[in-house]
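Continuing the batch. This is chain 6 of the set; chains 1 through 5 are on the previous pages. Same settings as before, nothing changed between runs. Recording input and output for traceability.
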Amino acid sequence: MSFDWLRTVFFLIPAISIYTIVLGTVLLVSTVFDPSGDFGHRCARAWSWLILRTSGVRVTVSGLERLDPSRSYVFAANHQSIYDIPIVFASLPFQLRIIAKESLGRIPFMGWHLLRAGHVLVDRSNPGAGVVKKMARLVAAGHSLIVFPEGTRSVNGVMGRFKRGSFVIALQAALPVVPITITGSRHVMTKGELTVRPGNVSLTVHEPVDTSALSRDGVRDLADRVRATVAAG
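Output for chain 6:
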């Protein structure tokens, strides 16, 4: 047993559980008075910051100057670790709503937060038109979306192909897609392992990709273009 494993089991897991229960409870209560989930997002950012700080994960962010704070975007990031979620939430100063697999909604507190705060949980076997409509409503309310187009975390750091579905809403709403490169999170917590290791992570915000002139037939090309940008970063 390594020191990092002992630290994870006897310190980090209890601490993160407390953050999740306390902030999750505050968030759930807040949705009664704020159904938009905007206050809940502030709770999610605080939860993310606490997790990163407690875990010893230091994130360096670059490229935020490329973004207009008054706009909505679809952020598309590579996915190497479960820590990518708090990394993104803590680093991007936007009202974010995540698009994630439906099974996450069954996790106590975190899943309840996703359901109550307006995040989009997708049944991959039957996504349905309702998902696109819900994403459109979020965008109309001034929210931005964060997607991990690979669909699952990478085990060896090799980026998978970006699935087309994540980019449909961007084309339909003529929203810019912002490629995001996350580097180093795989070494913090590797898929299939329990151990969390302190480390340095970088998050790079690339130039937004304009989708206003693209047609539905261009979804595959858009996905491949965004993936190439993320990989190059």
